[in-house]
Design goal:
The complex is a heterodimer of chains A (about 190) and B (about 220). With about 190 residues, chain A is mainly α. Chain A has a domain at about 40-155. Chain A has helices at about 5-15, 25-30, 35-65, 75-95, 95-105, 105-110, 115-125, 130-160, 170-185. Chain A is globular and about 60 Å long. The model of chain A has no long low-confidence stretch (mean pLDDT about 85). Chain B is an all-alpha fold and about 220 residues long. Chain B is built from 9 helices and 2 strands; from the N terminus they run H-H-H-H-H-H-H-H-E-E-H. In chain B, strand 1 (about 165) and strand 2 form a beta hairpin. The radius of gyration of chain B is 19 Å and the shape is flat. Classes of the chains: A mainly alpha (about 190), B mainly alpha (about 220). At the A-B interface, helix 2, helix 4, helix 7 and helix 9 of A face helix 3, helix 5 and helix 9 of B.
């Protein structure tokens, strides 16, 4: 089955949104979505790491397959992602200290974001070629950012409203995520 | 080992129950959400995921605890990740060999156990500072708590979404299944409801304590 690049992008961005339809990357989704100012840079940084991880994973998979070492795939991927995050961190620190400070602790935590490993694992499982892999990573990252920004906007509005005290915090965020997820189900079938 | 052998049985029970109830990873600490929501469309899937996580968590914590004096502090996180990834690979291949249907149902989420924050969190916060026996007890308790949480989610979603439990029909042929519960939104709703229940219990306990203090 050959999917076009546009199809893959729409699929990862809306129809099979990583956060709201596939439950990947929920920890930052619940944790960082309190404010719009942190949500957007976090989404951008995650998208970038996804792209780097996807490129590296593509090359690495070729290498491992040619040596018949597929069982090392998972270990190799996780090490690659950790190094990619470290690299992004160093580059940001050198060239954009302001952004580096703004992201703070969330930057190293991208390593344990399952959405990033998810991108690498899914593109391998679906046997995407180079262009497909890159589109998939960008789409997934954009979808993650979209979900994060939507959630942050809703939660900012919510701070001004009167909520039963028992429901405050994570329980309410999850209910909201459920409603957002219902809305995203409307996109099902769009990706073909 | 001296501290481990000196532990009385109540201490051990405490160590175990810590993870099952007071620090339940899913309902109290709200960790490991991704696998919790993604695989709990049925009770069987939820239990299998719980068991797989139990194996990885217990083995990794044991190994981390055994090697805790050898691992240099600077590279400890990377070492933990490699240890965890090794056990996850083992589980991945075992499940593939035992039941292909289950493997297809759980999909990439078996491999994603690597990035389950509960495991890295336990390795870093507990196993790296404690001797093997308490570390294992703690890991077992946490896993039991996580499995219990997964089962609570999976059972509710399967009963409401398909009208069955473990594949056995509960309400007869005229039950109209609540399909949304096995779809992604249902996962968020059911977990949200469970968190509400736990928050309400905690609130009631707090109120009682405050009342008792007020009377005294």
């Amino acid at each position: 089955m050959h999917e076009s690049a546009a199809q893959i992008f729409i699929n990862a961005f809306l129809a099979n949104n990583f956060v709201l339809a596939m439950f990947l990357g929920l920890c930052p989704f619940i944790g960082v979505s309190g404010k719009l100012e942190t949500a957007a840079p976090m989404g951008a940084a995650t998208t970038f790491v996804m792209l780097v991880a996807s490129l590296c994973a593509y090359g690495l998979n070729l290498l491992l397959t040619s040596f018949n070492l597929e069982f090392l795939r998972l270990i190799a991927y996780i090490v690659i992602i950790a190094s990619a995050v470290q690299l992004v961190e160093m580059v940001l620190k050198k060239y954009s200290p302001g952004l580096f400070r703004a992201l703070g602790i969330y930057l190293p935590l991208i390593t344990t974001n399952c959405a990033v490993l998810g991108v690498a694992l899914f593109q391998t499982a679906r046997e995407y070629d180079f262009v497909q892999s890159v589109t998939f990573a960008v789409g997934a990252g954009a979808g993650f950012t979209l979900a994060l920004v939507l959630m942050a906007s809703v939660r900012e509005r919510l701070q001004l409203s009167d909520v039963p005290s028992v429901a405050q915090g994570t329980a309410l965020s999850l209910m909201l995520a459920g409603i957002l997820s219902l809305a995203f189900m409307g996109f099902a079938g769009l990706g073909g | 080992m001296s501290t481990a052998t000196n532990l009385s049985s109540t201490d051990r029970w405490d160590e175990f129950m810590e993870g099952v109830w007071r620090q339940n990873p899913l309902f109290v600490m709200v960790l490991g959400l991704c696998p919790a929501l993604a695989v709990t469309v049925s009770a069987v899937n939820a239990l299998s995921m719980g068991l797989a996580t139990t194996f990885v968590l217990t083995c990794s914590c044991l190994l981390v605890s055994l090697l805790r004096k050898m691992i240099p502090k600077e590279v400890r996180i990377a070492t933990y990740i490699v240890i965890i990834a090794t056990f996850v690979t083992v589980v991945d291949y075992v499940i593939q060999a035992v039941s292909l249907a289950l493997y297809d149902a759980l999909g990439a989420f078996i491999q994603l156990i690597v990035v389950n924050c509960i495991i890295l969190g336990r390795a870093e916060a507990h196993a790296s500072k404690n001797p093997p026996l308490p570390a294992m007890l703690n890991a077992l308790g946490m896993s039991a708590g996580f499995t219990l949480g997964l089962f609570a989610l999976g059972a509710v979603r399967e009963i409401l979404g398909a009208g069955t439990l473990f594949g056995i029909s509960l309400f007869g042929p005229h039950f109209q299944p609540w399909v949304v519960m096995v779809l992604p939104p249902g996962g968020f709703f059911v977990l949200g409801l469970w968190l509400l229940v736990f928050a309400a219990i905690a609130r009631r306990k707090q109120d009682k304590l405050a009342e008792a203090a007020g009377h005294a």
